[in-house]
């Protein structure tokens, strides 16, 4: 039987002993946390939505941290005294320390961050950029590999990148022109063999050990924002692609 947890065992900030899928940290100052990440806590904790209904002090902290209004509804402020335990879909959880750094991470994998970090919306849909100094927690589907550019990465395997330019999209023309790919494109199917993120320059790329991405609501929200710019003919085309994709997934 594994060790029974108590506040005396969970001191400081670390993954649960023998469990890389849950992380605990001392709640002695406010943190920003992804909604749904909390699984348990010792002591006292209160959770506040990032809305106009919070106190003036928290409003000021939110204003100094969040420059990504589209993602503001996905986070809360947690404050109190005690130990907070968080998790994410059974994913591996890691702690990262920024020191006047610049790191972009997949939005659905960002779990918590200290208020000293500024959160900006990346130009790459579904990603957030963290700037400044402080600690943040992020999940990954398997252990994270840290790789130097130049390289190309499967979009679903990408966790984030630090201190290097945003990637460009690279399409494998041989794959795109193949009969199999042409048939898949009609059904709205994409893969890492067809489309990759191309990284150049200095920096570090964070890659998870699996291509599986479970949570895509941030990408859906980016698409929704573009819909007012789409013509009726374009909307009809999108509807056809969506229907074909749903039929393919049900087979």
UniProtKB/TrEMBL annotation:
InterPro entries: AIM24, AIM24_sf, Trp_RNA-bd_attenuator-like_dom. Gene3D superfamilies: Mitochondrial biogenesis AIM24. It holds the Pfam family AIM24. This is Uncharacterized protein (AIM24 family). It comes from Yimella lutea.
């Amino acid at each position: 039987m594994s060790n029974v947890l108590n506040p005396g065992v969970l001191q400081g900030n670390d993954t649960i002993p023998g469990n890389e899928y849950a992380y605990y940290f001392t709640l002695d100052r406010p943190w920003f946390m992804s909604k749904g990440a909390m699984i348990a806590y010792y002591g006292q904790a209160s959770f506040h939505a990032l809305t106009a209904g919070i106190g003036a002090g928290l409003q000021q902290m939110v204003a100094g941290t969040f420059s990504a209004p589209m993602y503001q509804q996905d986070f809360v402020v947690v404050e109190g005294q005690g130990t907070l335990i968080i998790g994410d879909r059974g994913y591996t959880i890691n702690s990262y320390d920024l020191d006047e750094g610049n790191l972009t991470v997949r939005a659905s994998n960002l779990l918590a961050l200290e208020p000293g970090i500024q959160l900006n919306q990346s130009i790459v849909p579904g990603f957030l950029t963290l700037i400044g100094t402080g600690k943040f927690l992020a999940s990954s589907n398997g252990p994270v590999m840290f790789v130097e550019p130049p390289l190309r990465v499967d979009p679903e395997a990408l966790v984030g990148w630090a201190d290097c330019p945003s990637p460009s999209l690279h399409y494998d023309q041989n794959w795109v022109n193949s009969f199999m790919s042409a048939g898949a494109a009609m059904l709205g199917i994409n893969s890492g063999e067809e489309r990759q993120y191309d990284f150049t320059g200095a920096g570090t790329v964070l890659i998870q050990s699996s291509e599986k991405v479970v949570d895509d609501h941030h990408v859906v929200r980016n698409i929704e924002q573009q819909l007012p710019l789409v013509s009726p003919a374009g909307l009809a085309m999108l509807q056809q692609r969506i229907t074909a994709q749903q039929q393919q997934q049900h087979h």
